[in-house]
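Lab meeting, item 3. Inverse folding demo.
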Protein backbone atom coordinates (compact mmCIF):
# COMPACT_ATOMS: atom_id res chain seq x y z
CA UNK A 1 0.00 0.00 0.00
CA UNK A 2 1.05 3.59 -0.62
CA UNK A 3 1.44 5.60 2.55
CA UNK A 4 -0.86 8.52 3.25
CA UNK A 5 -0.46 11.47 5.60
CA UNK A 6 -3.70 12.92 7.01
CA UNK A 7 -4.01 15.81 9.46
CA UNK A 8 -6.84 17.05 11.65
CA UNK A 9 -6.93 20.78 12.34
CA UNK A 10 -9.21 23.24 14.07
CA UNK A 11 -9.66 25.27 17.23
CA UNK A 12 -9.40 23.69 20.66
CA UNK A 13 -12.41 21.54 21.48
CA UNK A 14 -13.37 20.84 17.86
CA UNK A 15 -13.33 17.04 18.30
CA UNK A 16 -10.14 16.15 16.42
CA UNK A 17 -9.22 13.22 18.67
CA UNK A 18 -12.64 11.60 18.27
CA UNK A 19 -12.49 11.85 14.49
CA UNK A 20 -8.96 10.47 14.40
CA UNK A 21 -10.04 7.36 16.29
CA UNK A 22 -13.09 6.88 14.06
CA UNK A 23 -11.07 7.31 10.85
CA UNK A 24 -8.42 4.92 12.16
CA UNK A 25 -11.07 2.22 12.54
CA UNK A 26 -12.33 2.81 8.98
CA UNK A 27 -8.83 2.64 7.49
CA UNK A 28 -7.97 -0.50 9.43
CA UNK A 29 -11.08 -2.17 8.01
CA UNK A 30 -9.65 -1.38 4.57
CA UNK A 31 -6.38 -3.10 5.47
CA UNK A 32 -4.22 -0.12 6.38
CA UNK A 33 -1.79 -0.08 9.26
CA UNK A 34 -2.62 3.22 10.96
CA UNK A 35 -0.42 5.41 13.14
CA UNK A 36 -1.94 8.17 15.26
CA UNK A 37 0.24 11.02 16.47
CA UNK A 38 -0.09 14.55 17.78
CA UNK A 39 1.56 17.94 17.78
CA UNK A 40 3.44 19.02 19.64
CA UNK A 41 4.51 15.53 20.67
CA UNK A 42 4.74 12.06 19.22
CA UNK A 43 8.36 11.37 20.25
CA UNK A 44 10.18 11.59 23.58
CA UNK A 45 11.92 14.81 22.55
CA UNK A 46 8.78 16.36 21.06
CA UNK A 47 6.74 15.49 24.15
CA UNK A 48 9.36 17.20 26.32
CA UNK A 49 9.03 20.33 24.15
CA UNK A 50 5.22 20.01 24.46
CA UNK A 51 5.59 20.18 28.22
CA UNK A 52 7.32 23.55 27.92
CA UNK A 53 4.94 24.94 25.30
CA UNK A 54 1.72 24.12 27.13
CA UNK A 55 2.81 24.75 30.73
CA UNK A 56 0.66 27.61 32.12
CA UNK A 57 3.68 28.66 34.23
CA UNK A 58 5.39 30.04 31.11
CA UNK A 59 3.01 32.90 30.36
CA UNK A 60 5.96 35.16 29.47
CA UNK A 61 6.82 33.05 26.39
CA UNK A 62 7.33 35.24 23.33
CA UNK A 63 5.62 34.42 20.01
CA UNK A 64 8.99 33.90 18.30
CA UNK A 65 10.06 31.41 20.99
CA UNK A 66 6.74 29.62 20.63
CA UNK A 67 7.13 29.39 16.86
CA UNK A 68 10.64 27.96 17.06
CA UNK A 69 9.74 25.43 19.75
CA UNK A 70 6.80 24.13 17.73
CA UNK A 71 9.06 23.82 14.66
CA UNK A 72 11.69 21.94 16.69
CA UNK A 73 9.14 19.45 17.99
CA UNK A 74 7.78 19.06 14.44
CA UNK A 75 11.22 18.37 12.95
CA UNK A 76 11.80 15.51 15.37
CA UNK A 77 8.33 14.05 14.76
CA UNK A 78 8.67 14.19 10.97
CA UNK A 79 12.10 12.57 10.86
CA UNK A 80 11.54 10.00 13.58
CA UNK A 81 7.88 9.03 13.06
CA UNK A 82 5.89 10.53 10.18
CA UNK A 83 8.43 10.12 7.38
CA UNK A 84 9.38 6.50 8.13
CA UNK A 85 5.73 5.48 8.60
CA UNK A 86 4.57 7.03 5.31
CA UNK A 87 7.51 5.48 3.45
CA UNK A 88 6.57 2.11 4.95
CA UNK A 89 3.08 2.38 3.43
CA UNK A 90 1.21 3.26 6.62
CA UNK A 91 -1.61 5.75 7.08
CA UNK A 92 -0.49 8.49 9.45
CA UNK A 93 -3.15 10.66 11.11
CA UNK A 94 -1.83 13.63 13.07
CA UNK A 95 -3.66 15.86 15.52
CA UNK A 96 -2.29 19.17 14.16
CA UNK A 97 0.69 19.92 11.91
CA UNK A 98 2.19 23.02 10.29
CA UNK A 99 -1.24 24.55 9.61
CA UNK A 100 -1.58 25.02 13.36
CA UNK A 101 1.59 27.11 13.42
CA UNK A 102 0.41 29.14 10.43
CA UNK A 103 -2.85 29.92 12.23
CA UNK A 104 -1.74 30.26 15.86
CA UNK A 105 1.65 31.92 15.43
CA UNK A 106 1.38 33.33 11.90
CA UNK A 107 -2.12 34.78 12.04
CA UNK A 108 -3.30 34.95 15.67
CA UNK A 109 0.12 35.98 17.05
CA UNK A 110 0.80 38.21 14.05
CA UNK A 111 4.17 36.79 13.02
CA UNK A 112 3.06 36.36 9.41
CA UNK A 113 2.15 33.32 7.34
CA UNK A 114 5.30 33.41 5.19
CA UNK A 115 7.53 33.67 8.27
CA UNK A 116 5.97 30.52 9.67
CA UNK A 117 6.44 28.61 6.42
CA UNK A 118 10.07 29.76 6.17
CA UNK A 119 10.87 28.66 9.72
CA UNK A 120 9.14 25.30 9.22
CA UNK A 121 10.55 24.40 5.82
CA UNK A 122 13.52 22.48 7.27
CA UNK A 123 11.25 20.79 9.82
CA UNK A 124 8.74 19.53 7.27
CA UNK A 125 10.99 18.54 4.39
CA UNK A 126 8.81 16.86 1.75
CA UNK A 127 6.10 15.75 4.15
CA UNK A 128 3.14 18.05 3.71
CA UNK A 129 -0.21 16.34 4.42
CA UNK A 130 -1.96 14.62 1.53
CA UNK A 131 -5.27 15.83 2.96
CA UNK A 132 -6.25 18.01 5.92
CA UNK A 133 -9.60 18.24 7.67
CA UNK A 134 -10.46 21.57 9.25
CA UNK A 135 -13.08 21.00 11.95
CA UNK A 136 -14.73 24.40 12.05
CA UNK A 137 -16.17 25.45 15.40
CA UNK A 138 -16.98 28.81 17.01
CA UNK A 139 -14.21 29.70 19.47
CA UNK A 140 -16.57 30.17 22.41
CA UNK A 141 -18.07 26.71 21.91
CA UNK A 142 -14.65 25.06 21.65
CA UNK A 143 -13.25 26.62 24.81
CA UNK A 144 -16.48 25.79 26.63
CA UNK A 145 -15.99 22.13 25.69
CA UNK A 146 -12.36 22.16 26.87
CA UNK A 147 -13.31 23.67 30.24
CA UNK A 148 -15.72 20.78 30.77
CA UNK A 149 -13.05 18.18 29.95
CA UNK A 150 -9.95 19.26 31.87
CA UNK A 151 -7.80 22.05 33.23
CA UNK A 152 -6.81 24.44 30.45
CA UNK A 153 -3.19 24.51 29.24
CA UNK A 154 -1.21 27.68 28.40
CA UNK A 155 -2.58 28.00 24.88
CA UNK A 156 -6.15 27.20 25.89
CA UNK A 157 -5.96 29.89 28.60
CA UNK A 158 -5.53 32.63 25.98
CA UNK A 159 -8.28 35.23 25.64
CA UNK A 160 -11.50 34.60 23.75
CA UNK A 161 -10.33 37.27 21.27
CA UNK A 162 -7.21 35.18 20.55
CA UNK A 163 -9.26 32.02 20.04
CA UNK A 164 -11.61 33.89 17.72
CA UNK A 165 -8.59 34.94 15.65
CA UNK A 166 -7.57 31.26 15.52
CA UNK A 167 -11.02 30.13 14.36
CA UNK A 168 -11.09 32.82 11.66
CA UNK A 169 -7.48 32.05 10.72
CA UNK A 170 -8.40 28.46 9.94
CA UNK A 171 -11.23 29.63 7.71
CA UNK A 172 -8.84 31.94 5.88
CA UNK A 173 -6.26 29.18 5.45
CA UNK A 174 -8.88 26.77 4.09
CA UNK A 175 -9.74 29.28 1.38
CA UNK A 176 -6.05 29.55 0.43
CA UNK A 177 -5.66 25.81 -0.11
CA UNK A 178 -9.09 24.28 -0.86
CA UNK A 179 -7.61 21.33 -2.74
CA UNK A 180 -5.90 20.00 0.39
CA UNK A 181 -7.90 21.49 3.27
CA UNK A 182 -11.51 20.35 3.62
CA UNK A 183 -13.69 22.27 6.05
CA UNK A 184 -16.25 20.32 8.07
CA UNK A 185 -18.87 21.80 10.40
CA UNK A 186 -17.76 20.52 13.81
CA UNK A 187 -21.20 21.16 15.35
CA UNK A 188 -22.63 18.25 13.34
CA UNK A 189 -23.06 14.80 14.96
CA UNK A 190 -19.75 12.95 15.16
CA UNK A 191 -21.06 10.11 12.98
CA UNK A 192 -21.99 12.59 10.23
CA UNK A 193 -18.54 14.20 10.41
CA UNK A 194 -16.87 10.79 10.27
CA UNK A 195 -18.87 9.83 7.16
CA UNK A 196 -17.83 13.05 5.41
CA UNK A 197 -14.16 12.56 6.30
CA UNK A 198 -14.23 8.90 5.31
CA UNK A 199 -15.70 9.76 1.89
CA UNK A 200 -12.92 12.29 1.18
CA UNK A 201 -10.12 9.98 2.32
CA UNK A 202 -11.33 6.96 0.39
CA UNK A 203 -11.94 9.09 -2.70
CA UNK A 204 -8.30 10.17 -2.50
CA UNK A 205 -7.11 6.60 -2.02
CA UNK A 206 -9.25 5.35 -4.93
CA UNK A 207 -7.77 8.05 -7.18
CA UNK A 208 -4.30 6.69 -6.46
CA UNK A 209 -5.07 3.12 -7.56
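The presenter then showed the designed sequence:
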Amino acid sequence: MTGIFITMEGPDGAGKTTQMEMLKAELEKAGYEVLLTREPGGTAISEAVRGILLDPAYKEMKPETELLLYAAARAQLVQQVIGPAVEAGKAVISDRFVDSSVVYQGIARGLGVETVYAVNRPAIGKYMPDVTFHLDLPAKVGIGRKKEQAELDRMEQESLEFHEKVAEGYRELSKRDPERIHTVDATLPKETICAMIRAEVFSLLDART
